[in-house]
Amino acid sequence: MAAIKYLAGKEPHPNEHRMIFRNVDREGWDPSIDTYLGEGGYEQLKKAVAMEPQAITDEVKKAGVRGRGGAGFPAGVKWGFIPPNNTKPVYLICNADESEPGTFKDRYIIHQDPHQLIEGMAIACFAVGAKLAYIYIREEFPEGAAILEKAIAEAHEKGFLGKGICGSDFDLEIYVHRGAGAYICGEETGLIESLEGKRPYPRIKPPYFPAAMGLYLCPTIVNNVETLCHVKHILDMGGEEYAKLGTPNNTGTRILCVSGDVQKPGYFEVQVGKVTLGEVINDMCGGLKPGRKIQAVIPGGSSAKVLRGDETFKIKKGGEDVELKLEDIPMDFDTLAACGSMAGSGGVIVIDDSRSISWVLNNINAFYAHESCGQCTPCREGSLWMKKITDRVVAGKAAPSDIDTLDAVARNIDGRTICAFGEACSWPTESFIQKFRDELVASTNPDLDEAIVNPETELAAAHLAR
Amino acid sequence: MEVPAELEKEIDERITHYPVSKRSAVLPVLHALQHHFGYISEEAVEWAARKLELEPIKVLEVVTFYPGFRQSAPGKYHIRVCRTLSCAMAGSAELMESLCKAAKIDRSGVTHHHPIAVGEDGRFSIEFAECLASCGTGPVCMVNDDFHEKVEDAETLLSKYRD
Ligand SMILES: Cc1cc2nc3c(=O)[nH]c(=O)nc-3n(C[C@H](O)[C@H](O)[C@H](O)COP(=O)(O)O)c2cc1C
Ligand code: SF4
Ligand code: FES
């Protein structure tokens, strides 16, 4: 096969390992099925439908691929959670909500290589026994939704979807379902409620683990776009070969999305754990702006705990104690967790020393206050209070003791809610206070510590006086 | 409110995508109505409820939850500016300000429940949106269904929508 050429100015970095993004920004590539078929498209699906479904799940387990949507849960293991004696229909949902701030990878797969996703989904559906699948795509991807619908129609025409796929007795329909601008629809049980035509109020787990009780209370597999694309490559390479990519327990490739204060923000597909955060920032993204230092990095979408630029991390690696600087952190699930944060959705946000930390935290808090679904009191009230307090910090109208109040509000959310949004909204505040307390306190006004400064209290006081 | 036959046909087709439960079609039905009428009126809620054999409240609670549904008319061109962190760092607040100035839109009446401001001549309306999943090319915005990255100049952007 001739070497792949990429569009001028969009060539991958030499340290990338392009697999899922092989065709992104590729010269002469388009999202049509003919182009896809010209390069061995749907060959893996043909192979799959002649296999035992369990054998496919076994390959995915061997591959060890962990979910790319946020939680990093092994896909094969999740598929195995469908109750063995199940008699209900099984559904598969592709999570294309891509709503975690800092994340912008699924959009390129959808726009430029939709058949890769459809093939991956079809193989996954065959493996788990699903005959009906949905792609839940955020409303703000109207072009992506149209491209996917066209691709599905093309795949239908060629017999890769519909009845008796590739001459087997496997039937499958895939439909595109558009969201309506709510972040909580990315949470898998909120997504399922939304797909049932309701408000996307997440369900409590247990008992509502989707693999056992998901869409219409039937077993449902929810996987991220990128995760489902990997399935095709796992079948192509074999699980064991695939597992040689990346590092042990952190196999394969993943797409990192870098934004914020770097020279060249962008997306980079790398072997998991084979590049460090420093290499990503300095080599792939061309470093920081002139004269700037890293103040903070959010390594896995805005819900991930923040890391300080000058921090060192004492972690255990292979039974040994090691000390890592921020730049030395390999970008994998386990190391980022050991460093007190998470690989999350792969969205890396770099914040240099020109930024006000209270402004950054306030921006994040405004996001979560807007997006809480409102079911749980700690999350609904707490997310709003965290925003209001940081509003005051930014305006210079907060007292130093407000930082403690802010911390207490955050700590009273996580672990006390129906869904992981509780952690997603409180971890930024908790970690910013833990790492940047001095910077936050510096934005407050010590003269206010004694006074009533809370506008709500003032209002209440005025009301009582009347 | 008159739902044209063509639109109803499209909606009926969409409903077939949900063989297990018609209620699942609430979002697609509302999207189709909003796309045609610009917003979701009370009549549209009732129409959708009849179509899907639901109590109107089951439709209304969906409309009021999702930021993607509007209950009043936007401008001919509706602009959504991303306000989340990476775009804010790239200047989205400034972009919002210059867009409002160029399109003569007053945002002083905007609240959580009324996030959209419409310009005097009704050509443009604007609101802040949360992360639009293109954080590496901020500031980004959408104008109706068009996506715009690295938006620097408000006039240049608006000039594409002058008709
Ligand atoms: C608040 C919240 C938002 C989420 N948003 C997304 C999202 O936009 N896209 C996504 O794939 N997963 C998202 N997730 C994770 C999903 O709940 C789920 O774990 C994931 O889709 C599973 O797929 P995976 O195993 O392939 O990663 C979110 C989770 C939470 C708690
Ligand atoms: S934690 Fe927040 S987002 Fe999740 S269910 Fe509770 S209120 Fe809703
Ligand atoms: S922050 Fe604007 S697109 Fe993500």
How is the largest sheet of chain B built, in terms of strand order?
2-3-1-4-5
What radius of gyration of chain A results from the CA coordinates?
23 Å
Number of strands of chain A: 13
Biggest β-sheet of chain A, characterized? 5 strands, mixed
Largest interface: A-B, 53 and 43 residues
Secondary structure class of chain B reads alpha+beta
Element order of chain A: H for helix, E for strand: HHHHEHHEHEHEHHEEEEHEEEEHEHHHHH
Distance between the termini of chain B: 26 Å
What proportion of the residues of chain B form beta strands (DSSP E)? 5-15%
Describe what this molecule looks like in 3D:
The complex is a heterodimer of chains A (466) and B (163). Chain A is of the alpha/beta class and 466 residues long. The radius of gyration of chain A is 23 Å and the shape is globular. Chain A has a 5-stranded mixed sheet, sandwiched between helices. Chain A has 17 helices and 13 strands. The mean pLDDT of chain A is 96. With 163 residues, chain B is α+β, with helices and mostly antiparallel strands. Chain B folds into 2 domains: 5-65, Arc Repressor Mutant, subunit A; 77-159, Glutaredoxin, CATH 3.40.30.10. Helices cover 41% and strands 12% of the residues of chain B. In chain B, α3 (42-52) packs across α4. The radius of gyration of chain B is 17 Å and the shape is elongated. Chains A and B meet through β3, β7, β13 and α13 of A and α2, α4 and α5 of B. Residues 82, 84-87, 131-135, 138, 140 of chain B line the site of FE2/S2 (inorganic) cluster.
Summary tags:
heterodimer; A: 466 residues; alpha/beta; five-stranded mixed beta sheet; four-stranded parallel beta sheet; 17 helices; 13 strands; 39% helix; globular; B: 163 residues; alpha+beta; Arc Repressor Mutant, subunit A; Glutaredoxin; 2 domains; 41% helix; 12% strand; elongated; binds flavin mononucleotide; binds iron/sulfur cluster; binds FE2/S2 (inorganic) cluster
Q: What would you say about this model in short?
A:
The complex is a heterodimer of chains A (466) and B (163). Chain A has 466 residues and is of the alpha/beta class.
